[in-house]
Amino acid sequence: MQSTPLTIFAALTCATLAPSLATAGVVFSDTFSDSDRAGWFNSSGVSNTATVADGALTVTSGRHVLAYFADTTLSSVGDTLTLAFDVSVLNPLNAGSGFRVGFFDKNGSTAVSADGVNTGFGNYLGYTAALNLVPPGSPVIFRQRDNPGNTALITTNTNYTQLGSAGGPVASFVSGTTYRFIYTLEKTGADALSIGVSVTGGAFGETYQHSVPDESGIVSLLNSFAISSTTTTATSFTLDNVSVTFTPVPEPSSFAAWSGVAVLGLVASRRRRR
Ligand SMILES: [Ca+2]
Ligand SMILES: [Ca+2]
Q1: Is residue 49 within 8 Å of 229, Cβ to Cβ?
Q2: How many CB atoms lie within 10 A of CB 170?
Q3: Percentage of the chain surpassing pLDDT 70?
Q4: Ligand lying nearest the CA atom of residue 29
Q5: Do 260 and 35 meet the contact criterion of CB atoms below 8 Å apart?
Q6: What is the per-residue pLDDT across 24-62, written as a single tens digit (0 to 9) for each?
Q7: Three-state DSSP class for 126?
Q8: Do 204 and 166 contact (CB within 8 A), yes or no?
Q9: Ligand approaching nearest to the C-alpha of 31
Q10: Separation of 150 CA from ligand 2 center, angstroms?
């Protein structure tokens, strides 16, 4: 297409509108192919409890690993934030709430910049899902971190209110088997969220998926996540192909603006052909 004043205007308008949509998509990604764990912080002051080898991150149980992403707000009904990762565990055991994942808002705190022993997290708000890797029918337990104070982020439930529980793993995790773990927050109302997990792979197939709602006092600004297992759950866990993806529903105003741009472009194109 040749440039006309209208197509130039349309292109400029697109460029102006583009930043408002730039927050959609992948806001965090790590495959550990560079053999380091820059951007990940271990709750231990002993650095060798989280190490990268063979392109994956292995974390000793009893500790969490934490990473940050840009402030992301679930503002419209349908907006979804998803943490996805491959995980394998070594020597999984029967322990309720043993394996935990969480999305958090650091809530004005300074982001940690080094490994530490559960310090600096007193103000964090957010949500966790916890499950038993080797259940006898234990449910997945969903909690909200809504009572800040204790500085441990995810290795204690002191700061948490239980939102509910749902079903339970339909099989046990098997040592050394890689599973795809997906943890999701979806805005479902003005002051409501749905928190869900799904695990696929091994004996789980596609069948393991549960969620519960939080129907008031929601945390809709998120900028960090953590993954943890208790010492009674497994010897260690190994992560790879970790991503956080923000999937907003398109704003009506964005639709209107973009369709306006499209109409302008079409008009310009037709005028030129006449
Ligand atoms: Ca990798
Ligand atoms: Ca709540």
Answers
A1: no
A2: 14
A3: 81
A4: 1
A5: no
A6: 799 999 999 998 999 999 988 777 789 999 999 999 988
A7: strand
A8: no
A9: 1
A10: 18
Ligand nearest to the CA of 215: 2
Strand partners, 179: 87
**Ligand nearest to C-alpha 37:** 1
The Cα 215–Cα 126 span in angstroms is 14
Length of the chain: 274
Structure tokens that stand for 190 in this block: 């003005």
Domain boundaries, the chain: 23-273
Q: Kindly report the number of other CB atoms within 10 A of residue 172's CB atom.
A: 18
Using only C-alpha atoms, the chain has a radius of gyration, in whole angstroms, of: 22
Considering only the top CATH level, what class is 23-273? Answer: mainly beta
CA of 106 to the centre of ligand 2 (A): 17
Which 8-state DSSP code applies to residue 231? T
- Tens place of pLDDT for every residue, the chain, 274 residues? 444 554 444 444 444 443 334 467 999 999 999 989 999 999 887 777 899 999 999 999 888 999 999 999 999 999 999 999 999 999 999 888 899 999 999 999 999 998 887 778 989 999 999 999 998 767 899 999 998 777 789 988 888 999 999 887 778 999 999 999 999 999 999 999 999 999 999 988 766 788 999 999 999 999 999 999 988 888 999 999 999 999 999 866 655 555 555 555 555 555 555 5
State the distance from the centre of ligand 2 to the C-alpha of 129, rounded, in angstroms.
14
Question: For residue 264, how many other CB atoms are within 10 A of its CB?
Answer: 15
